[in-house]
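Quick one: sequence plus NAP SMILES, need structure tokens.
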Amino acid sequence: MSTILISGGTGLVGRALTKALLDKGHDVIILTRNVAKAGTATSRLRYATWDPAAGTLDPDALLQADAIVHLAGAGVAEQRWTKKRKAEILNSRVMSGHLLSKALSENPHTVKTFITASAIGWYGPDREMNKENHSSGAFTEAAPAFTDFLGDTCRQWEESTLSIADKVRRVCLRIGIVLTPDGGALKEFLKPIRFGLGAIMGSGTQMVSWIHCDDLVRMILFALEENKLIGVYNAVAPVPVTNKELVIKLARQKRGNMFVPFPVPAFVLKIMLGEMSIEVLKSCTVSSTKVTREGFVFLYPSIDAAVKSFV
Ligand SMILES: NC(=O)c1ccc[n+]([C@@H]2O[C@H](COP(=O)([O-])OP(=O)(O)OC[C@H]3O[C@@H](n4cnc5c(N)ncnc54)[C@H](OP(=O)(O)O)[C@@H]3O)[C@@H](O)[C@H]2O)c1
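Reply:
Sure thing.
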């Protein structure tokens, strides 16, 4: 039994991870900016305060942790990307990463494993990236960060905890679109489907590299347990889907044939979402080969298996 400290443990992934860790007999400490709002503590789950913007962190939380899972960061798809919001998305990740790095280097601790979230936003769109690299196929972990807002954010996010790897085993998961009935992207996909509309984004031919939340949680547990895992791994299902395939399969699962496919033109998405529309329209095919070579087995390798679980 270990004690796992989870930053951003109150979020979508953090809540599912906390449950899985508690079920496995581990203790959990959640690092949150607001303990009063975070939840109810138990003998095996407690909450500790930090404030990445102010650079403060409860030192007791660090003292008790055997491993850290760093998930914190302002939601990327929650709000329109204004200049202010983009700064918040970047700073919440970089400042929290620097704070954890500093705390680990300046305080006594027995942390043996550090796992940080990153995102497949690291990679650019399929076509442009492949042109640059003169290659075809899915992005592997060796590909350089793309030079757009998300690529730069992911690069600085990952760099903010790189120094931890000098003394502690560090694993970085570049996470794809997380699908779970509990919220996030799936909730957005299902909104129009509830009204009988299968909203296909743009041409619908863009590839979506996704992962079932249960598999992401299992991959984090795998990374905590398997000491051979070091460095960056893509956290995406082995079989990506097109946006159209994803929407149609979700609609069929929820409504049988009682829905109308409804293409939302790219220019409408640009007006509705602003710069964030790039992410919805972008095709990004990412490889999961590195983590499966280490022995990770997906419960939901294909979208059919995942969609069936969202009853
Ligand atoms: N969900 C996805 O599809 C997806 C895809 C790729 C990558 N990821 C990454 O995986 C991580 C976990 O994802 P998630 O969906 O669980 O995220 P989430 O639901 O948005 O939760 C993230 C947590 O971060 C904390 N947070 C929010 N704003 C913050 C700020 N300004 N400064 C510091 N902390 C802040 C919050 O905890 P407190 O309010 O308790 O402090 C929040 O519960 C995130 O870093 C996300 O970018 C997620």
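The domain at 3-309 is CATH 3.40.50.720 (Rossmann fold). The pocket of NAP is lined by residues 8, 10-14, 32-34, 38, 52, 71-76, 88, 92, 96, 117, 119, 175, 177-178, 184-185 (CB under 6 Å).
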